Amino acid sequence: MNFVADESVDQPIVTQLRQAGHTVLAIVEMEPSISDETVLEIANQQGMVLLTGDKDFGELVFRDRRYIHLGLC
Predict the structure, then answer these.
(1) Global pTM value
(2) Cα dihedral across residues 37, 39, 41, 47: positive or negative
């Protein structure tokens, strides 16, 4: 599977997913401190599942009706 890991996802999770053969774009490695909207946009553009522990994404998805494959840690 392909994942975008928000900054709230601990590095050991990213490492284990990669070791298991998954593709993981880790926001903390790419562009720390970007907005939640931008993280969501990256996940949508790449067709990747968003991994996050940040509950604000639920509000963006459900309130603003933004589509995303959402995985909560």
Answers:
(1) 0.79
(2) negative
